[in-house]
């Protein structure tokens, strides 16, 4: 059995608004995302069950290995799994959509996704066409006392992404947008989670996943603000019961607001480049400029990504290596360009 199939999270369902349940999984064991981003606190795959008086909907699902846990949680909440009417796929990536094929086999539910998402569900998850309904931007469905509105928000960070808005309670389900890798806390207001930590996790997540799509983030952010959500429920990390905190931070990040700040990235073979980097570090500091200096030999990618969000200047120091840049400098130059 592969490691992924042994995944266990033990997260209990939480009803955080009347008949709205967090039913996702916490993955404290996971150490990397995209085989690149380190996860010191693991991550979570948040999934949400919304029960109306007439119909029931599940918003997003879970990562491979957590399907049975999700089924085990929603079955008693529904009374019978067959009472699941809709599965909403805000994003087609496997960390949120992998349980969809199994759930569709066990129920008569219809999969709702954006037009692009519907194509991807068919292509990637081999979902039969008759089980999928593509929703239009701004379309609503009534569950009985609860109305879900779908808002297209493409390229956060795949082309099919959308948000789901529960109108009566003003809860916005944003999938990866506003996400943070954290398997410890379910809500932003838990005593064990400081505001600084909450923002740091979200900032790192934004830098590594959303920053390359900043133009699209800006458009999506305006849409979010127009809905004035009372709760923002992303699919990684804590649910925001005070969305104003994260909205204020996101407004800076999506806007590309920079500080008088410099990042020095260097690699040194005989300490000469290191000396130059140190000299620049001290000289810039004397000018009152915030400086972050990283030796590329042992830098922390997550920290660097977070720093890139609001820096004005990047300085690169490399010795000549086989008539070119040192390979570490090439690697990080490329990475910085990819993160945009
Ligand atoms: Fe994603
Ligand atoms: Fe994700």
List the helices and strands and how they pair.
Layout: E1 14-17, E2 20-22, E3 25-27, E4 32-33, E5 37-38, E6 43-45, E7 48-51, E8 56-59, H1 67-78, E9 86-88, H2 94-97, H3 100-106, E10 110-113, H4 115-125, E11 132-134, E12 140-142, E13 147-152, E14 162-166, E15 171-175, H5 195-210, H6 214-227, E16 231-234, H7 243-255, E17 261-266, H8 272-286, E18 290-295, H9 301-308, E19 313-317, E20 320-321, E21 324-325, H10 327-339
Parallel strand pairs: 8-9, 9-10, 10-11, 15-16, 17-18, 17-19
Antiparallel strand pairs: 1-2, 2-7, 3-6, 4-5, 7-8, 12-13, 13-14, 14-15, 20-21
Helix pairs in contact: 5-7, 5-9, 6-7
Please explain how this structure is put together.
- The protein is an alpha/beta fold and 340 residues long.
- The protein has two domains: 3-255, Metallo-beta-lactamase, Chain A, CATH 3.60.15; 261-339, 3-Layer(aba) Sandwich (Rossmann fold), CATH 3.40.50.
- The protein is 33% helix and 23% strand.
- Strands 1-2-7-8-9-10-11 form a seven-stranded mixed β-sheet. It has a five-stranded mixed β-sheet with strand order 12-13-14-15-16, covered by helices on one side. Strands 18-17-19 form a three-stranded parallel β-sheet, with helices on both faces.
- Strand 8 (56-59), helix 1 and strand 9 (86-88) form a beta-alpha-beta unit.
- The longest helix has 16 residues, at 195-210.
- It is elongated.
- The two termini are 39 Å apart.
- The structure holds fe (ii) ion (2 copies).
- One fe (ii) ion is lined by residues 91, 93, 157, 176.
């Amino acid at each position: 059995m592969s490691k992924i199939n042994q995944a266990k999270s033990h997260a209990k369902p939480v009803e955080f608004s009347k008949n709205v349940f967090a039913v996702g999984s916490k993955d404290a064991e996971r150490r990397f995302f995209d085989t690149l981003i380190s996860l010191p606190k693991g991550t979570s795959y948040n999934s949400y069950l919304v029960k109306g008086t007439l119909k029931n909907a599940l918003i997003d699902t879970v990562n491979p290995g957590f399907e049975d846990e999700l089924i085990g949680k929603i079955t008693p909440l529904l009374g019978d799994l067959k009472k699941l009417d809709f599965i909403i796929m805000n994003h087609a990536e496997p960390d949120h959509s992998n349980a969809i094929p199994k759930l569709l086999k066990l129920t008569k539910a219809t999969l709702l996704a954006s037009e692009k998402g519907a194509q991807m569900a068919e292509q990637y998850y081999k979902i039969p066409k008759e089980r999928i309904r593509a929703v239009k931007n701004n379309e609503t469905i009534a569950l009985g006392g609860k109305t879900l509105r779908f808002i297209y928000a493409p390229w956060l960070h795949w082309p099919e992404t959308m948000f789901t808005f529960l109108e009566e309670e003003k809860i916005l389900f944003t999938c990866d947008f506003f996400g943070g890798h954290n398997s410890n806390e379910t809500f932003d207001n838990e005593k064990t989670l400081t505001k600084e930590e909450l923002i740091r996790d979200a900032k790192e997540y934004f830098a590594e996943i959303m920053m390359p799509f900043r133009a699209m983030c800006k458009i999506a952010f305006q849409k979010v603000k127009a809905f004035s959500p009372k709760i923002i429920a992303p699919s990684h990390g804590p649910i925001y019961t005070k969305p104003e905190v994260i909205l204020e931070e996101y407004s800076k990040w999506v806007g590309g607001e920079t500080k008088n700040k410099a990042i020095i990235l260097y690699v040194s073979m005989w300490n000469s480049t290191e000396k130059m980097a140190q000299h620049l570090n001290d000289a810039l500091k004397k000018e009152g400029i915030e400086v972050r200096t990283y030796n590329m030999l042992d830098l922390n990618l997550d920290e660097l990504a977070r720093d890139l969000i609001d820096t004005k200047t990047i300085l690169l120091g490399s010795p000549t290596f086989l008539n070119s840049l040192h390979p570490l400098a090439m690697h990080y130059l490329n990475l910085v360009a990819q993160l945009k």
